[in-house]
Amino acid sequence: MVELWLRGAGEEGLRLVLRSTARTSAVLFAGAFAAPALRTFFQSGDSLLLAFLASQFIHLVGVISLAVIRHRPTMLADPPGIVAYTFVAIMVLRLILESVGSVPQWLRRAESISLYGFWVIITGAFAHFFPGIRRIPLHYLILAILVAALVVRVRTALAARGVWKSETLAHSSADVH
Which residue, 97, 125, 155, is CA-closest to 25? Predict the structure, then answer.
């Protein structure tokens, strides 16, 4: 929002807000996505998730504002964006229900699917699979952070299920040498 005050709410100011919130959201999402594995660093992954959701809300306001300024409401009919914000809505619903009581198991599963689905969309955006996103070196760093978050999350999930054990890794690496 500081960017809007500095540059004004014109198209260029909104584009700057969109770029800033997209990058901020990606890094916050990576932290929230990997949070179950990083409990020693973060007491609650929900605080990172909440920060990510706030950044996404600002991003959404920027997208809507840009569509209004350009007089192009069809900008809002972006399939990856619609799916991504559906995933965001599921995450918000889980947080709300958890704050007022219990969360149904189906919603926890839906949130898990949403987290992975959002990861695919945001990683695809920073990997330049979608048009309109400029290629800059910072995007490759963000992409690496997102991939690292996936590796950490999947490794932790596999370890929790007993599929990934450090002894197994030690034996397989000994067999290679």
Answer: 125
